Amino acid sequence: MINIRASQTSGWNDCPRRGAARAYKDIIEKAGFEVDGKANYVRGVASSLGTAVHVGAAHALRKKIDGESVSLDDMIDVSNADFDEAVCNGLSFDSITGKPSVAKIQIERLLKVYFNAILPNINPIMTEQFIQAELKGGHLLTAHPDVLEINSVHDLKTGREPYEYHAQLGSYSLLAKANNICIPEKLIIDWIQRTAISKTYIEPKSIVFNVEICEAEAKSTIKSIISQVKEFQDTGDPVAFPANCMSNLCSVNYCPCIGTDFCKLKEN
Ligand code: SF4
Fold it and tell me: Does residue 74 surpass a pLDDT of 60?
């Protein structure tokens, strides 16, 4: 049985081998490969900050589902607590967020924008709940979608312009239907970009994706993942997962298996 997380589908085609090193570490190590032996891989601040903002947003959405009032201060508190934990576990900082105190300012700004511009337009029926569906062959598709509404799916992004998430959104849509939760007519990315604190204004965008296109991309990517994992299980050869060393993420900062036996395309 192969487990496919909806969130792994979007970046998969950028470099399936990197995606496999993250998603199927157990299968790869069982075949005798070390997938993170040589990289100095430390989680980046961008993803930890994004996760912290998600935690604050989910807190607000749960309150909204329960019919309770939502406090921006509470959102900020739960987000900061999540971020503090990430800092304790080790983080690499970057040019937009150079240190934890800057991250806290950015988290607060992003949550304010979410609270004022996004939250009032969402009527959630479910948030961050685990859902799954069995696929042909007994494989599993799983997810924790940010928000399901009666006729749409919302996903919050805080990174760069979010135009590569068709497969992930399509997976959410397929899961919502398979679990009889709703029939999405719109798949929406609510985008509030993490920016340097010198920028005074952040414009949020709600970008609507086409359901049919996203579901088709999801099905195609899921099919590729299953076939590549099965080939690797049969052959034990890393080439079962195509590799793209032209990817922008082909570096020690983003790829756990760079320079290992599992991917020798770019030495560490
Ligand atoms: S080292 Fe580069 S090519 Fe190899 S898996 Fe990582 S991202 Fe892909």
Answer: yes
What are the tokens at 55? Answer: 């935690």
The total of structural domains in the chain comes to 1
CB 193 within 8 A of CB 158: yes
**d(CA 243, ligand 1 centre) in Å:** 6
Which is nearest to 219 in space by CA: 139, 153, 126?
Answer: 139
The Å distance, Cα 33 to ligand 1 centre, comes to 14
- Percent of residues in the chain assigned helix, strand, coil, to nearest 5: 45, 15, 40
Domain that holds residue 133: 3-240
Is residue 255 a part of any domain in this protein? Answer: no
For residue 249, being part of any structural domain is answered with: no
Tell me the one-letter amino acid at 117. A
Which among 42, 51, 113 is positioned nearest to 82, based on CA atoms? 51
State pLDDT tens for residues 142-193. 999 999 999 999 999 999 888 889 999 999 999 999 999 999 999 999 999 9
- pLDDT band, very low/low/confident/very high, at 6 (cuts 50, 70, 90): very high
In a domain, residue 248? The reply is no
Q: Is the pLDDT of residue 107 over 70?
A: yes
Q: Which two tokens stand for residue 2?
A: 């192969």
Residues in the chain: 268
The answer to whether residue 229 sits within a structural domain is yes
Q: Is the pTM of this model over 0.90?
A: yes
Question: Residue 39 pLDDT more than 60?
Answer: no
Provide the 8-state DSSP code for 135.
P
Distance 120 CA to ligand 1 centre (A): 41
